[in-house]
Amino acid sequence: MRAHLARVDAVLVQALIAAALSFAHLHDVAMAAGQDGWKAWAYPISVDLLLVAAWRRLRSGTAKAAAWCWFVNALAASLGANVATAGLLDLCNVPAWLRILVAGWPAVAFLGGTLLAHSSPAASTAVEVIEDQEDEPETPAGTPFQPAVEPPPAHPPVPVPAALVDHARKVAAEHHTRTGAPIDTPTLRARLGVPAPMAEAIAAQLT
Q: What is the predicted pLDDT for the residue at 124?
């Protein structure tokens, strides 16, 4: 366990040192290209953020072509700054093409970050659609798939007081005497003034 932690600590320290050196080189190139003050500090942050966003997209497995494109661009900007500060470039007399590249980098980084951020929902939606299609049950050729129809839930029996049933019997007998026909459920409901489910339960007990 301690050996594993030691290896992790060593990797973390090495990564921090490399990031700090790369950050400083990007800052120096931006300063030499005329981007002074807070702008010189914003350039390395922009490059590193684009690198991280592109790397996360590569790890996610979606839109890999775009992720590789912006990862290579950010890596070229970082590596180019590291090489430029190694004595191959006179930072006191920066050529015009480098000034143009440094001045145009914010637009490139903004475009890359925006495309990487807004291409994720579409990609994830496409993956979900494919997974839904794979989960659909297979049916024989030429036979449309019909989902199983669940029967409607049975209504629980409505409790009816015995006194109400006796009263309903009297009402039914009076109706039969007067009309010569058995009383129907709507008429029984109207005479008793009860809800439809209770009227049906009472009618079932009268038969």
A: 46
The model's pTM is 0.45
Other C-beta atoms lying within 10 Å of the C-beta of residue 66: 17
Q: What SS3 state is found at 33?
A: coil
Is the Cβ–Cβ distance between 192 and 164 less than 8 Å? Answer: yes
Longest CA–CA span in the chain (Å) reads: 119
Helix (H, G, I), strand (E, B) or coil at 147: coil
Residue type, 45: I
Q: How far apart are CA 186 and CA 200, in angstroms?
A: 9
Residues 52-86 pLDDT 10s: 888 887 777 666 787 788 888 888 887 877 777 77
Contact 35, 102 (CB under 8 A): yes
Q: How far apart are CA 67 and CA 107, in angstroms?
A: 17
